[in-house]
Design brief:
With 628 residues, the chain is an alpha+beta fold. It is built from 11 helices and 36 strands. The strands form 8 sheets. An 8-stranded mixed β-sheet has the order 29-30-32-31-33-34-35-36, sandwiched between helices. Helix 1 (3-11) packs antiparallel against helix 11 (607-625).
Length: 628
């Protein structure tokens, strides 16, 4: 199995818990079978067991470390708990009668019942019964039902917009998260019907975790994502660590500045950056969960200079204890149970692994499916002029370079298995890889993120010039340098060939190639995208150059530059038709452009598609750089 297939298959597995010797994982074996695998006892073969996926919903209940199935039969709900050890327990409860006909289950989340045990909050809609041949009638909106074994059902009709993310009986509120398209969601803590006189409290942010009247939310994203403790009763927000004393996150290290890591224009060598933990006062929060029995501490993942780091945070004092996670570039927080939390870790050089964080901060580790590459060294975070980047050095002399451009644009480069491990192959062919956090990326403050708006050409020209200067100082000329980008990064890869005609060329996967058409399609789905696009791009200008991401401007590349666009015909994020039109226009102008198509969407949907897309991009880069 190729690395892209191996990596895709592993990403489909769900980290559930930790047993002696390693992670407990689950994956869908087929459409009706969920397979659970645990570490076997020493000297014995691994013995998975299966759960039949039946009923209307399947949920992994983290509090009890079990899968729970739900089946609606009229006003009766059957609930079955499947333990990870193969045990099974079922119970039933009566639901209120649907006023118009029947309940249809839309969603279910885990919560705590008034008796202190595990409960479940269901989102249901009332569907009117219809005679044979009649069309479905419109439903009247959501109803929320709280059920627990041995307890009566509690019903609530939400008044606020959004999807249910938390039901807190102690605080007598439900929390709904209202999606707002491109803007941060709104969170509504709405009193239950029995206490309707209390006002609802609202905050802007992304829901992370909640219990006992308090919640962890991520505020101010994506400009400056900060962790906040939200009181569900009075709506107050507190940022833990902001005013803490010695030992707090705010005093864990200094903030690195452009030029303080390496000289302007240089590509830093290994070991030139400051040590782990520095600059965490400015590092954005990626994720967090309460850990332990109450709400006094949290496991927090922060991203600093392209690497994720885990901390145990005392929410009262703000003191933070760094956790031991060496070799893990990206930390994905997958599960939080009463016994601890589980992380899935991935890195270009170190491969994949699983980590388990105990309540005392102890870290256990087990390897994943992708092994480390001992011939490679971890990337170095540096500044090329004032533009941050992750630099991956080949084992020997660099004979070519690839400048990689992430999508977004409001995202950032991380040390993870980017492009399904493609960086590894490039490095072993003597290709130096620069993961560029171009101006407009997140993770470096609001001013950096907003700077290129409506003038992307000027901002990216500065980024690209600084990068090419640093590579030239290393002996890698522009004609041995290619741009590689995906989604919006693909758009910048095309723009880069317009700005620097001495580049070898570019490979753009699923790029955005017509900003006006892209904005119109997005606004047709959600009108709020009109303001989002208008704030960032000059849509109104009659000049293609000022619009920047316009077919007429993007096809002014150099006459010898090889440009390859790789695009899935079923992409619903960026337009395959726009890419086809762009390539046809370039070829009419005599430019050596080509389009490689497949049947995938914006990203691969299965292991075969992942391998095929990887191979397409690899072969295209080999053609642009004339690699063996």
């Amino acid at each position: 199995m190729s690395l892209p297939e191996l990596f895709f298959t592993e990403r489909q597995k769900h980290l559930l818990s930790w047993a002696e010797g390693g992670p407990v994982l689950a994956h869908m074996e087929d459409a009706e079978t969920l397979r659970i695998t645990s570490p076997p006892p020493p000297g014995e073969p691994r013995a998975p067991h299966d759960i039949a996926v039946t009923g209307d919903a399947l949920l992994y209940a983290q509090a009890t470390e079990s899968f729970v199935t739900f089946a609606l039969d009229g006003a009766r709900l059957d609930v079955t708990r499947h333990g990870l050890d193969g045990t099974r327990h079922g119970w039933s409860t009566a639901l209120p009668t649907a006023p118009r006909g029947r309940w249809a289950l839309q969603d279910v989340i885990e919560t705590r019942s008034a008796a202190g045990g595990t409960g479940f909050a269901l989102t249901v809609v009332d569907e009117e019964e219809k005679e044979e041949g009649e069309e479905e009638d419109e439903t009247e909106g959501d109803t929320l039902l709280l059920v627990a074994e041995g307890a009566g059902t509690v019903s609530h009709r939400p008044r606020a917009a959004g999807s249910l993310v938390h039901w807190d009986e102690g605080a007598a509120v439900v929390v709904l998260q209202e999606d707002r398209g491109p803007f941060p969601p709104l969170l509504h803590a709405e009193p239950l019907d029995s206490d309707a006189a209390r006002p609802a409290v609202t905050t802007e942010g992304r829901w992370l975790d909640g219990r006992d009247g308090e919640a962890l939310v991520l505020t101010d994203a994506p400009n400056d994502p900060r962790l906040a403790l939200w009181n569900l009763r009075d709506g107050s927000l507190r940022h833990p660590g902001a005013d803490a004393g010695p030992g707090s996150v705010a005093e864990s290290g200094s903030v690195s500045r452009p030029g303080s890591v390496s000289g302007p224009g240089s590509v830093a060598g290994p070991g030139s950056v400051s040590g782990p933990g520095s600059g965490l006062a400015s590092a954005p929060v990626d994720n967090a969960r309460f850990i332990g029995a109450g709400t006094s501490s949290a496991l927090v993942i922060r991203t600093y200079e392209g690497t994720d780091r885990a901390w145990l945070l005392d929410l009262a004092s703000g003191a933070a204890e760094p956790l031991d996670t060496p070799g893990a570039g990206r930390l994905l927080l997958r599960v939080a149970t009463p016994r601890g939390a589980g992380l899935y870790c991935l890195s270009t050089t170190e491969g994949t692994s699983y980590r388990w964080i105990g309540l005392d901060g102890a870290v256990e580790c087990a390897p994943g499916a992708v092994p480390p590459d001992p011939a490679l060294t971890p990337p170095t975070h540096t500044y090329l002029g004032t533009t941050p980047a992750l630099v991956y050095e080949p084992p020997g002399e660099a004979t070519a370079a690839v400048i990689a451009l992430h999508g977004g644009p409001e995202s950032q480069e991380r040390d993870e298995l980017r492009w399904d491990g493609l960086y590894r192959e490039l490095l072993h062919h003597g290709v130096l890889v620069v993961g560029l956090d171009y101006t407009g990326s997140s993770g470096y403050g609001a001013a950096f993120l907003r700077r290129p708006w409506k003038d992307w050409e000027t901002a990216f020209r500065r980024d690209l010039d600084a990068c090419l200067t640093a590579l030239r100082d290393r002996g890698v000329t522009a004609d041995r340098t290619a741009l590689l980008g995906g989604s919006f990064g693909g758009s910048l890869a095309l723009l880069g060939c317009v700005l620097a005609e001495d580049l070898a060329g570019a490979v753009a996967a699923a790029p955005l190639t017509d900003i006006r058409r892209q904005a119109a399609r997005a606004a047709a789905d959600d009108a709020r995208y009109t303001a989002w696009f208008s704030e960032r791009y000059d849509l109104a200008s009659p000049l293609p150059r000022q619009r920047t991401f316009d077919p007429e401007f993007l096809t002014t590349t150099g006459p010898k530059q090889r440009v390859v666009i790789v695009h899935g015909e079923n992409d619903r994020v960026t337009s395959f038709e726009d890419s086809s039109t762009l390539v046809a226009r370039a070829r009419e102008l005599g430019l050596p452009w080509s389009l490689t198509a497949d049947a995938s969407g914006h990203v691969a949907d299965d292991a075969d598609e992942a391998r095929f897309r990887h191979d397409q991009v690899r072969d295209a880069l080999a053609a642009v750089l004339d690699l063996p």
